[in-house]
Amino acid sequence: MTPTNKLKIFNDPIYGFITIPNSLIYDLIQHPFFQRLRRISQMGLSYLVYPGAHHTRFHHALGCMHIMQKAIQTLRFKGVIISDEEENALNIAILLHDIGHGPFSHAMEHSIVEEVHHEEISLKFMHALNIEFEGKLDVAIQIFKGEYYRKFMLQLISSQLDMDRMDYLKRDSFYSGVAEGNINSDRLIQMMNVQDDVLVIEGKGIYSVEKFLVARRLMYWQAYLHKTSVVAELTLTKILKRAKELTQKGVNLNCSESLSFFLKNKITMISFDENVLKIFALLDDYDVLGAIKSWQFHSDFVLSSLCNMIINRDLLKIIMSEEKIDALKLEEYKSKLLTSYPITEKEVSYFVFKGKLKNQAYNKESEPISILKKDGTIESLVDSSDQLQVKALSKAVTKYYMCFPKVLLDT
Prior knowledge:
Layout: E1 9-12, E2 16-19, H1 23-30, H2 32-35, H3 57-77, H4 84-95, H5 105-109, H6 118-132, H7 138-145, H8 151-157, H9 163-176, H10 185-190, E3 192-195, E4 198-202, H11 206-224, H12 227-248, H13 257-264, H14 274-280, H15 285-295, H16 301-311, E5 317-321, H17 327-340, E6 353-359, E7 370-372, E8 378-380, H18 381-384, H19 388-393, E9 397-404
Parallel strand pairs: 4-7
Antiparallel strand pairs: 1-2, 3-4, 5-9, 6-9, 7-8
Helix pairs in contact: 3-4, 3-9, 4-7, 6-7, 9-11, 12-13, 12-16
């Protein structure tokens, strides 16, 4: 039997060639749990706004691992001691950091898997893989949970300037075509260092950090929180809620067995056991989109109408404002819709609703980005920057929205 060559390379449009460093990481990538990420969109329904945004969480995870390798190389060059075991653990932790995402993850977390966050599911996948790989993920799990004694390693995985954010900004900018989101990740990584067990950016890299934060803010308003992306995700959330409501009333909905399981059962962290994890691992975008294609012809007016909106990109009207939504206007639209649609007062909230969005590029109250000054002292980014821009980016910006069917504009 010919042995498998596990020293593979991926050709990535962002970074060029990405190498798999060893056979363990190759086996993790080949595992069905990880291969599922090929069928999970990175930007959800954003392709309804930006047609090129069809890249997956598989792309993103590999990209994160690649820049983690670059970061480790840079830190070692600067004298930071990182053992081979720690290097492997860092690569594994960042590779698997998003493995717990479900299809259209944020919509699912607000509808059918309501009480379980994707990071908690990622950890469950890691533990399951650790058993299968006989404890070889022990250190990676410790780092991911923040239990490893070297603090800066968690910062590489999860912080305000981590490998995750660096890759998704650069990648989402590339595939969506939103050029304002592009960042110089190479420069940021070259400016990294470790001081007193804290990940720092050398002072001459401060302008690259400021550019990174501006890019993050612009990507949120132009892509992630674009009004059409927002209303599409909200509509999908309503679809899944309606499907769960009907299923639990005994209505039979045509969908995959794995999706049907989550529609029929209320899943909490306590009930999310090994068997639930295996069923969750079968879920991907195709389950949800396949169900929506079928449900657009269902006899339930609410479900079929919402599904048609997604399939034909004929979405609800969304109005965004810096002022709070007028409650009287909302009630007026609800009353009008009751005379136009064959729905009950309870069902009208599937079509007319309000909410708010928050965008904060940098949270100075959280663990700050630390700047290493020439004299060896560490200063927070806000204190170190001579730009008022960073202070402005630290403020949370809230916008309010109201959604309703376009037919109400004609009445």
